[in-house]
Write a structure and sequence with these properties.
single chain; 541 residues; alpha/beta; FAD/NAD(P)-binding domain; 2 domains; five-stranded parallel β-sheet; 18 helices; 32% helix; binds NADP nicotinamide-adenine-dinucleotide phosphate
Length: 541
């Protein structure tokens, strides 16, 4: 029986479906259109921007230099967009991404308010059937996931969350309308990069702010500033050199590790270097520090002590200062939150720090938060409690490959991938910024990742290839390689989203190596060699 007889609309079929209209999905759409393929992007939100669409929380902004974080693929785009700050705020970044969508007329191929709930592979097609939350289905030959490493927000597993009668919100689901804190008693749970940005902003206007901290993080000053028209022109004139530098550095940032080891230099020289880094804008103190900072325990202890002393100098109450100094991990072993007068917030009369290791949260109540020693009343509770990172956004979609095997089951003990892009048993599925990828300055990685996938799609198109699969041997080899790169790095000895640990998600309490810890140039070279060989490592049919 055909669709005419059943009265059902025919299932829409595309050469490729991209899940997600964040930066990677947007750029992948641009590139696949150039190949003349029919493409549909499925996006859960009502607009483009991904991370920058969802994370509208107060104070959200880039921690990487705005101009180094933008798309570089179009000179025209680079020429017409001016950044107003060295570290752009979320509203400006979202305006930029909407400008990109307008300029390249992207929205006509993006289906908004369409959350993908399932994607099942069928070898008879060969291709994928993708199901949306409204029950609709679409089909495609190639499925490209552009679902982001930090896009599955997690609420804390604290009893009573649903009973609170005031206003509450996870930072990644922040409302589109402004929220006023004026005259309000506000709680923030979580002190990662998001919590830090939120806290320093909310503290400016809230009647009272209580911060519930489980693990303090090592934060460093952002030193943001405005960009004048003249400065913008200078920055723009330097774009070719700047993007070239991003290609050469370890993590695609404008900063790269110093070639010296910590104890190669005198104490005086070391301290002067750290003072300079602490006073400089951006991630320099994290990724531009001595090269052994994350491999040599003594070196790591020394920089940790330097930053601890900064915290002691900035926070007036020594008891509070000690609570803000991490004791269970060294500087830089977790993502360093960048801050603007964050520590000074704790000198304000309207701010209180609650260390929930001393006085654990027992429950969220209808009126606030109950800890082991007090009942706090709040008007607003902000959950800055992070994400089920890297694999979480995959786990939330019922992805099934050949023989119905579930990706979630396959990755139960950690992701297994080929170049972070493919998985054997899941043919014709390509992942953008998936597990085992170099993260770093993400748009730089996105552009390479998308260009590589586009090259593969072009090759498939030109050679009439309908089925692409990574082999089991190559997946094992890449997964082993990624694991080996993590060996000896202090980063992988610490619980964080970067090691796959999330106390709020069942089954994610064990550390894994879920991201590529080698250099971005090495990663690109490996991928480019595969392309140059005619993708010989892949099973193509
Ligand atoms: P996060 O770093 O995972 O921090 C989550 C925070 O919530 C942690 O302090 C965590 O404590 C706390 N928490 C989680 N569950 C809890 C519970 N049940 N009870 C009490 N506390 C709980 O998440 P994030 O701050 O959203 O940042 C994630 C990543 O997003 C960053 O590392 C960064 O890569 C990215 N980001 C980037 C920017 C930027 O570029 N500008 C800004 C924000 C975020 P524990 O540490 O004890 O688990």
């Amino acid at each position: 029986m055909n669709d005419m007889q059943t009265g059902q609309a025919p299932v829409q079929t595309f050469d490729a479906i991209i899940i997600g209209a964040g930066m990677s999905g947007m750029y992948q759409l641009v590139r696949l259109r150039e190949l003349g393929l029919s493409v549909r992007v499925l996006e859960a939100g009502t607009g483009v921007g991904g991370t920058w669409y969802w994370n509208r929380y107060p104070g959200a902004r880039f921690d990487s230099e705005s101009y180094s974080y933008q798309f570089s693929f179009s000179r025209e785009l680079l020429d017409e967009w001016d950044w107003s700050e060295h570290f752009s705020s979320q509203p400006e970044t979202l305006r930029y991404l909407n400008h990109v969508a307008d300029k390249f007329d992207l929205r006509r191929d993006i289906q908004f308010s369409s959350r993908v709930t399932a994607a099942h592979y069928d070898d008879a097609m060969p291709g994928w059937t993708v199901t949306l939350d409204n029950g609709d289905s679409l089909q495609c030959r190639f499925l490209i996931t552009a679902i982001g490493p930090l896009s599955a927000p997690t609420m804390p597993n604290i009893p009573g969350v649903e009973t609170f009668q005031g206003r509450s919100c996870h930072t990644a689901n922040w409302p589109h309308e402004p929220v006023s804190f004026e005259g309000k008693r506000v709680a923030v749970i979580g002190t990662g990069a998001t919590g830090v940005q939120t806290i320093q902003e909310v503290a400016k206007t809230a009647k009272h702010l209580t911060v519930f901290q489980r693990t303090p993080n090592w934060c460093a000053p952002l030193h943001n500033s405005r960009i004048s028209k003249a400065e913008m022109e200078t920055i723009r004139a330097n774009y070719p050199a700047m993007f070239q530098l991003c290609q050469e550095t370890f993590s695609c940032f404008l900063h790269t590790a110093d070639t010296r080891n910590t104890f190669d230099v005198s104490e005086e020289e070391r301290l002067a270097f750290w003072e300079k880094l602490y006073a400089s804008p951006g991630f320099g103190i994290w990724v531009g520090n001595f090269k052994d900072m994350l491999t040599n325990r003594e070196a790591n202890a020394a920089i940790s002590e330097f930053v601890a002393n900064k915290i002691r100098q900035r926070v007036k109450d020594p008891v509070v200062a000690e609570k803000l100094i991490p004791k269970n991990h060294g500087f830089g072993t977790r993502r360093v939150p960048m801050e603007t007068r964050y520590y000074e917030v704790y000198n304000q009369d309207n701010v209180k720090l609650v260390d929930i290791n001393e006085t654990p949260i027992e429950r969220i109540t209808p009126t606030g938060i109950k800890t082991s020693d007090a009942d706090y009343a709040f008007d607003i509770i902000i959950y800055a409690t992070g994400f089920d990172a890297i694999t979480g956004s995959f786990d939330r979609i019922d992805i099934r490959g050949t023989d119905g095997q579930k990706l979630k089951d396959r990755w139960r003990h950690g992701p297994e991938t080929y170049l972070g892009v493919m998985v054997n048993g899941f043919p014709n599925m390509m992942m953008l910024m998936g597990p085992h990828m170099a993260l770093g300055n993400i748009p730089r990685s996105i552009e390479h990742n998308v260009d590589w996938v586009t090259g593969l799609m072009r090759f498939a198109h030109d050679n009439r290839i309908n089925r692409i699969e990574a082999t089991a041997d190559e997946v094992k080899a890449w997964t082993d390689h990624v694991k080996a790169l993590g060996d000896g790095l202090l980063t992988f000895e610490v619980n964080s989203w970067m090691t796959g640990v999330n106390t709020n998600v069942e089954g994610k309490q064990v550390r894994i190596i879920n991201r590529y810890a080698g250099s971005a140039p090495d990663y690109r070279a490996r991928c480019d060699a595969v392309a140059a060989s005619g993708y010989r490592e892949l099973a193509l049919a």
